[in-house]
């Protein structure tokens, strides 16, 4: 009886029905038809006969982003909204420029794991694990170093040097999304100040100040 049960378990583990994952592509590509009124999880496919090289091309990541802002950083995202051919492929990337002592502030990507490669400069990076530990996993990176930020976890990068820094990020989604820690104070419409004051155990005047501060975005 025990042997029979073991065989059943092993067959279940080996079954492709149990090992659920994203399905493989059923076609070479599905270039996004952004003009379609049909709403799906992603974008409707353009007619393959109307596809051209421009649907798979983007130019400009060689150009530094403008870091003349309060954060001293700039994120240039290349996702499905920039390259229609990324639709259904599950990847995107971004260039991040940092002024001296600039920061890419704490944020998370709800749909993607990120792998970051430092091209120039020195960065202090880290992410915070989920409850109940809430551990900070952090490291100093130099040019050529690579670091991974797991999907959905809050993470950051800080240029700790007095020279500019540049990094390239690869993300495991055509549209990874970005939610910053500050967004709780910068939502539209605003969250009632009394709610946030109770949640953070501060005076509503502090919340009013924070809500007035966090209205900017450093993404292209």
UniProtKB/TrEMBL annotation:
PROSITE patterns linked to this entry: GERMIN
Positions with a binding annotation for oxalate: 104, 109, 114
A GO molecular-function descriptor: manganese ion binding
Principal localisation: secreted
Pfam families recorded: Cupin_1
Residue ranges constituting the Cupin type-1 domain according to the UniProt record: 59-208
S-S bonds: 30-45
Protein localization: Secreted, Extracellular space, Apoplast
Sorted UniProt keywords: Apoplast, Disulfide bond, Manganese, Metal-binding, Secreted, Signal
SUPFAM superfamilies from the UniProt entry: RmlC-like cupins
Claim: ATP-binding is one of the keywords in the record: no
Signal peptide positions on this chain: 1-20
GO cellular component terms, semicolon-separated: apoplast
Record: residues binding Mn(2+): 107, 109, 114, 155
Family of this protein: Belongs to the germin family.
Protein's UniProt name: Germin-like protein
Native organism: Acorus calamus
